[in-house]
TrEMBL record:
PANTHER family: 5-FORMYLTETRAHYDROFOLATE CYCLO-LIGASE (PTHR23407:SF1), ATPASE INHIBITOR/5-FORMYLTETRAHYDROFOLATE CYCLO-LIGASE (PTHR23407). InterPro entries: FTHF_cligase, FTHF_cligase-like_sf, NagB/RpiA_transferase-like. This is 5-formyltetrahydrofolate cyclo-ligase. The keyword Ubl conjugation does not apply. One of its GO terms (molecular function) is 5-formyltetrahydrofolate cyclo-ligase activity. SUPFAM superfamilies: NagB/RpiA/CoA transferase-like (SSF100950). Its EC number is 6.3.3.2. The keyword ATP-binding applies. It catalyses: (6S)-5-formyl-5,6,7,8-tetrahydrofolate + ATP = (6R)-5,10-methenyltetrahydrofolate + ADP + phosphate.
Amino acid sequence: MNKSELRKLIRQQRRSLSKAQRQSASRGLLRQLRSAPEYLTAKRVAVYLTNDGEIDTQWLIQDLHQRRREIYLPVLHPLRKGHLAFIRYQKNTVMSRNRFGISEPSFSRNKAVSARFIRLICLPLVAFDDRGNRLGMGGGFYDRTLEFVHEKGKTPLLVGCAYDFQRISMLPAESWDIPLKLIATDASLHRLLTFTTPAD
Ligand SMILES: Nc1ncnc2c1ncn2[C@@H]1O[C@H](COP(=O)(O)OP(=O)(O)O)[C@@H](O)[C@H]1O
Ligand SMILES: [Mg+2]
């Protein structure tokens, strides 16, 4: 199966879940994330608003809100084509629909934060594998925005969020694909090992 066939199949599968299945998976996702120390200690966390049947972040957002964490949402960057910016998400945040029909905070330059300043970023995905490869919707937005993680220095922890059934034995990784460090599903938490050389 090629990437576009795989996207179509899994997107159909995740859209066909019942409301009850979505609710229970959303709670499961939170339970799994809460077992990761990085999630509990992160002061700034980026999430996404559920779209196209993606695993629901509603419980996650509620948990972060209750624990007084700073929540950020991705927005299509109006100046840097193909990139995302992150904007603080609060009760009074003005929202609008972007060209994909996804709800996002209205962009203003003084509210936008670079991904570099966020401790933990939750990424939606269509499929993942055990090596941390991520298949998105095909826009490459996260890949472009997070390219800097290859540089030296502190980088955000990239956490893929998905239903367990979105796991594929092996995904083709392209040179531009940014790998995930942690994958949280409704039922499990996969931590990807990164091998560093002594020079690192
Ligand atoms: N860092 C990058 N610089 C330039 N183009 C990129 C970059 N990352 C991704 N792209 C482009 O985005 C497109 C979609 O990427 P792909 O990885 O297939 O999508 P997704 O990650 O959403 O599944 C590709 O055609 C690729 O050329
Ligand atoms: Mg990609």
